[in-house]
């Protein structure tokens, strides 16, 4: 017997009863929000400290044989390498998540990411073991990419599928703010280590500490996630035994164009975001032989300050998308990002920590507006039976097209032209691509997410597509 789906029902279920196919209990919702924030913060802390280290030390410690001109490019390439393996993580996690549940996947990805990150902190450098050092570093970065590819889809679906219909944007913003929180934590810990281990000590051992701290964070995240119930949408699918046997095959057979468009939406945001999360601006501003030459510590604190602004704008964007729609919120965000991109390098080039902070904070506002609604937007695009696969693979492809090699491209442009102008136009093009992709999607805010409405969910949300 099915339970009425109205959230306004005054009937109180018996103690210990979990309502299948209905909105989760208020207490469990709060636990889910907390768990997704903590879990994604830990995951992205792990992911971003690698990018920070790539911008600051990995070129010298692991890739020095590439030569002075190319060591830093190779270091940034190692950041992008992990993105190529995100689709593998998304494929695996999507299949497992649609077949066996969101919760199980989240536990696996958390442990995999933490183990890889901790081992990076223990790696000998090139000077100690030669070419084996960069090979092992790249292998661990690949494991991080596989984990990141599977993490995001599970986290956002746990949040959105537990949410009341009119608060999906706000609930979906909870795993999203784990990204700026992870960036804040990574930048803060790295900045502290520049004080604890200044100068050569940072190169010798200081950079390792943030990686080794990951083991503590993983234990905390694992404890929190174990206490969260499975998504009510998946619980209902499991109860009915309506799992899709090959969800990825069904996804590409019926929704390939939608996956591509959704990926392009994220690519525009991700390319701009990886100017900081990918470590490019930090490396550019601290390069002693470059035009700026700022100290590591203040630059890292500037990135941390921008992460706070990014967090606030991401949360606000999720909240406001419940009121004005996901599509409208995105369009506003793209418009805000354009002037921020053109202001970025002129402000950074003033070689002041204050103007650097201002530039990154301006960028963070637009990044939050085009990131906060993403969880709800993606969840509302795909049918329940293949939703994990749809959101994970769209996200992974968008990350490859956007942020994967954005720092490498920026570094190559500057080294080739001697100017940052080309980087500005590259980022502008990515934002315009994201805007166009957004305009190709209908707003489906509030569409029912449960398996009872699979036919409605399967209707294409692309503008111009037949609606039934």
UniProtKB/TrEMBL annotation:
The chain crosses the membrane at residues 47-64, 70-93, 105-129, 181-199, 205-224, 255-277, 297-317, 329-347, 353-372, 393-413, 425-441. Keywords: Cell membrane, Membrane, Transmembrane, Transmembrane helix, Transport. This is MHS family MFS transporter. It is a multi-pass membrane protein. CDD domains: MFS_ShiA_like. GO terms for molecular function: transmembrane transporter activity. One of its GO terms (cellular component) is plasma membrane. Signal peptide: none annotated. InterPro entries: MFS (IPR011701), MFS_dom (IPR020846), MFS_trans_sf (IPR036259), Sugar_transporter_CS (IPR005829). Residues 32-446 form the Major facilitator superfamily (MFS) profile domain. Pfam families: MFS_1. Residues 1-14 have a biased composition (Low complexity). PANTHER family: SHIKIMATE TRANSPORTER (PTHR43045).
């Amino acid at each position: 017997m099915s339970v009425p789906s109205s959230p306004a029902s005054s009937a109180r279920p018996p103690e210990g009863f979990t309502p299948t196919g209905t909105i989760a209990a208020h207490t469990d919702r709060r636990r889910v929000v907390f768990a997704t924030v903590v879990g994604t913060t830990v995951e992205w802390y792990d992911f971003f400290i690698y990018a920070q280290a790539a911008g600051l030390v990995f070129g010298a410690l692991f890739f020095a044989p590439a030569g002075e001109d190319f060591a830093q490019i190779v270091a940034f390439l190692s950041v992008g390498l992990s993105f190529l393996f995100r689709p593998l993580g998304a494929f695996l996690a999507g299949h497992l998540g649609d077949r066996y549940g969101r919760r199980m996947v989240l536990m696996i990805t958390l442990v995999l990411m933490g183990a890889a990150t901790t081992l990076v902190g223990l790696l000998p450098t090139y000077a100690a073991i030669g070419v084996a050092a960069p090979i092992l570093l790249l292998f661990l970065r690949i494991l991080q990419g596989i984990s990141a590819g599977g993490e995001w889809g599970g986290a956002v679906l746990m949040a959105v599928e537990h949410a009341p219909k009119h608060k999906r944007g706000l609930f979906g913003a909870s795993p999203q703010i784990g990204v700026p929180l992870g960036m804040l934590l990574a930048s803060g810990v790295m900045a502290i280590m520049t004080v604890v281990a200044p100068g050569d000590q940072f190169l010798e051992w200081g950079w390792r500490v943030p990686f080794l701290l990951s083991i503590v964070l993983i234990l905390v995240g694992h404890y929190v996630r174990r206490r969260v119930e499975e998504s009510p949408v998946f619980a209902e699918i499991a109860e009915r035994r309506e799992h899709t046997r090959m969800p990825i095959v069904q996804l590409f057979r019926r929704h390939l164009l939608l996956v591509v468009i959704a990926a392009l939406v994220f690519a525009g945001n991700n390319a701009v975001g990886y100017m900081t999360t990918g470590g490019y601006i930090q490396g550019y501003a601290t390069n002693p032989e470059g035009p700026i030459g700022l100290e590591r510590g203040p630059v890292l604190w500037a990135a941390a300050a921008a992460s706070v602004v990014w967090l606030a704008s991401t949360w606000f964007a999720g909240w406001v998308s419940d009121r004005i729609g996901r599509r409208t919120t995105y369009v506003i965000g793209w418009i805000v990002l354009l002037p921020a991109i053109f202001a970025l390098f002129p402000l950074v080039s003033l070689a002041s920590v204050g103007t650097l902070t201002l530039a990154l904070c301006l960028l963070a506002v637009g990044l939050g507006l085009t990131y906060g609604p993403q969880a709800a937007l993606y969840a509302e695009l795909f049918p329940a039976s293949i939703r994990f696969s749809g959101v994970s693979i769209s996200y992974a492809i968008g990350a490859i097209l956007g942020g994967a090699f954005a720092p490498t491209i920026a570094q190559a442009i500057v080294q080739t032209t001697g100017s940052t102008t080309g980087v500005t136009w590259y980022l502008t093009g990515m934002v315009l691509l994201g805007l166009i992709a957004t305009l190709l999607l209908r707003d489906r805010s509030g569409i029912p997410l449960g398996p009872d409405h699979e036919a409605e969910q399967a209707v294409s949300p692309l503008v111009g597509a037949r609606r039934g």
